[in-house]
Design a protein that fits this description.
Elements: E1 11-20, E2 23-33, E3 38-42, H1 49-57, E4 64-69, E5 72-73, H2 79-84, E6 87-89, H3 102-110, H4 128-140, H5 156-169, E7 174-178, H6 186-199, E8 204-208, H7 212-218, E9 221-226, E10 229-234, H8 236-240, H9 243-248, H10 252-259
Parallel strand pairs: 3-8, 3-9, 6-7, 7-8
Antiparallel strand pairs: 1-2, 1-4, 4-5, 9-10
Helix pairs in contact: 3-4, 3-5, 4-5, 5-6
Length: 262
């Protein structure tokens, strides 16, 4: 789906750096993601991918450089402030309310975007717009038949799907997914990639992912991070053919993905 032209990228990193003590983890990362693009961030273990996500989402503050969301500088803001500006993130470890039902989790996810600040649970039944939006999300993530099941009793793949629903429920236009298919079987992964494509239509997506089949099947562009720098940012086809990328990271992973028809 083509993105609506805008003056600013949906998300931009400008000479972003992060050090912990004397160790520089992110070393001048630059990246500009346009509205509506789906971007996979790949790289070897320890390359700084999770640190980049933490910098973008406000969990870490940069040592220097800037993070811009729709042209607005967001570094230094708290995660909840960034979320209210239109960026939402899921985590490697499923982050939902285990003792609430599927429906209740989704309803909690939509409240702030609909203008409800702090609402006591006993009044939620009367919030018809929130209830309707939660029902829509539940159908979108294909958990409508599990409406009243507690999140803790869902399968792992269902819990991940629920987290995706909560993540997009807040109305954010920029979505960060941290290893969304980790721990899934091959069949679950295939279904989940289809779900991610469906629910992020029209949104800007960044995902950290190790499964190269998922990367090549999902992403419009791939950003390759090595030693805290973005060494390549291009289409999957161009990244496959980039000698520097293959030398630094891909190697046999690309050959395996090609052999598998991805």
């Amino acid at each position: 789906m083509s993105a609506t032209p805008q003056h600013s990228p949906a998300l931009e990193l400008r000479d972003l750096r992060k050090s912990f003590g004397k160790s520089e983890i992110i070393r001048g990362a630059n990246l500009a993601v346009q509205p509506g693009e789906r971007v996979a961030i790949i790289g070897p273990n320890g390359a700084g991918k999770s640190t980049l996500f933490n910098l973008i989402s406000g969990r870490f503050e940069p040592s220097s450089g800037d993070v811009l969301l729709n042209g607005q500088r967001i570094n230094g803001k708290k995660p909840f402030e960034i979320n209210r500006m239109g960026l939402s993130r899921s985590f490697q470890i499923t982050n939902i309310f285990p003792k609430l039902s599927v429906f209740e989790n989704l309803r909690c996810g939509v409240l702030w975007s609909l203008g409800y600040k702090y609402t006591f649970l006993k009044f939620l039944v009367n919030l018809h717009d929130a209830n309707h939006r939660a029902e829509e999300l539940m159908a979108m993530i294909k958990l409508d038949k599990k409406r009243d099941v507690l999140a803790m009793n869902l399968t792992y793949a269902e819990q991940r799907a629920l987290e995706i629903g909560v993540t997009i429920g807040g109305g954010a236009n920029v979505i960060l997914l941290d290893e969304p298919t980790a721990g899934m079987s091959k069949s679950e992964t295939g279904r989940f990639v289809g779900l991610i494509k469906e629910v992020t239509v029209g949104k800007t997506l960044l995902t950290v992912e190790h499964d190269m089949g998922v990367v090549f099947g999902l992403a419009d562009k791939i950003a390759v991070v090595v030693y805290g720098e973005v060494i390549a940012f291009d289409t999957p086809e161009a990244v496959r053919a980039n000698p520097r990328v293959q030398e630094a990271y891909l190697g046999s992973a690309v050959a395996d993905a090609q052999a598998g028809g991805h």
